[in-house]
Amino acid sequence: MVWxxxxxxxxxxxxxxxxxxxxxxxxxxxxxxxxxxIVDTINLSEKTHLTKTITxxxxxxxxxxxxxxxxxxxxxxxxxxxxxQPGESAPVTIIISSTEEEVINSKITVSRGSESxxxxxxxxxxxxxxEKKKVQISIFPSGIxxxxxxxxxxxxxIQIQNVGNEEVDLTATVSGGITLPDGTIxxxxxxxxxxxxxxxxxxxxxILGLVGKGVNPxxxxxxxxxxxxxxxxxxIPIQLTILSSPTQVENKTMTIVTYPSNLxxxxxxLYISTVDEKGNLVQSTITxxxxxxxxxxxxxxxxxxxxELEPGTxxxxxxxxxxxxxxxxxxxxxxxxxxxxxxxxxxxxxxxTIIYQTPEGKLIDNxxxxxxxxxxxNSRITVTLDKGEYTIEASAPGYKKxxxxxxxxxxxxxxxxxxxxxxxxxxxxxxxxNVSYEIKRVEDGExxxxxxxxxxxxxxxxTKPGLYNIYxxxxxxxxxxxxxxxxxLGVIYEYWWVIAGIVVLVxxxxxxxxxxxPKKKKEEYLIKDVRQVRGALSQEKVEEGEHG
Length: 548
Hints:
single chain; mainly beta; Immunoglobulin-like; 5 domains; 6-stranded mixed beta sheet; 5-stranded mixed beta sheet; 4 helices
């Protein structure tokens, strides 16, 4: 294991020496690649892979296509070919992975025909170690490496944040360092910093002053000692290189190039580089100042890696030896938004839904909706409101603020005891307040007004069958159905056979001129006739006896 570490360390040193020498090799190319190298560490106790990004810039006057390849299967490029427009840049993601302790010494090759640029990739993969003490303070950048021309000065920004769960008490000093021949200490000092308590999650800025006046050319080292608890000190290394004043020549011009180049939106990842008049890449120091829409400074930092754009304005400044200072300002366009309120004319009985969304209907993240004096941290809420006028305001970082005023009306209610009545019946309709009411009958799909008035009570007595809609203050509050009064059809259906028999009898009567004789009556008539016949025969016998 020891020999592996020694081998890894030696290979890492050789790789770093190669990287430092590499920028000295200059050639004319139709494209450039940034950064010039990739050096990092994978701690297997935390992860097994790294994700890096290289930016390829087209320096030619026409569209070019470049190929990207890796010399190691452990260094993977996500795209192997990319087409770039003139003056544009394209990011390419590199994934480096390993599951064992080793030093990955590889390279990424970007080529176009006979042209090629190689980006060394040196990754130290270390095995899990004993759990370290939980980090309490986060510092960015973790160290300062800068260069100055004799007689010049500039500031460096260091961001400090309490990432623990307890308050810390910060103090900062510059270590003694090296004394210069003129008696001055290494030309770096704390220009601005507020000592004191830093709450969990709170950030603080340290401004470090770098001075090249009266300092001989050379490289000087020093460090800042940041103490946040008794016995707990973080060292921030400083390496400052003083360059000789150049001969008086006219400074060349350089330009700041960004990707994307325009139409910046919240969430875009911004890549920054600088090029000369011919489009060749210029190694420069780039600082970025972030301000809100009102022009207030939010933060300032040195650009080292691509970052995600937030709402506001970015002022980018680039400096390089032998070049005039370059500046570029980026304003982040606020995205469009919509405020939807359902229903549009709510009443005191309605559940009101308020939605803050994109024009495509997507809910907006990190939204704040204010309804009167109440605030809700959500993009979709439901509320019930008392009668009155309310101002509704919705906003979210990066999106246009929306404001709308609504009037909540008192809900009018109608008490209708019987929704269905017979023709000729009366029904008392009571309203919850004095209103202007209107009664409309539905005829062939159309409404026809049959009565209107004012008050809190109305006696409904319409006789014409049909559906009647009731309106109060132009709002539909109920309906009454009037049915035709008459024989109950249910009774007719149940005793249809009786009714049918009566109908048959009536028909027979109409055709015969008299009612049919029941059987019993017929029998009585027959008996009477027999008796009459018998009586007649007896009378004839008596008369024969008398004449005989």
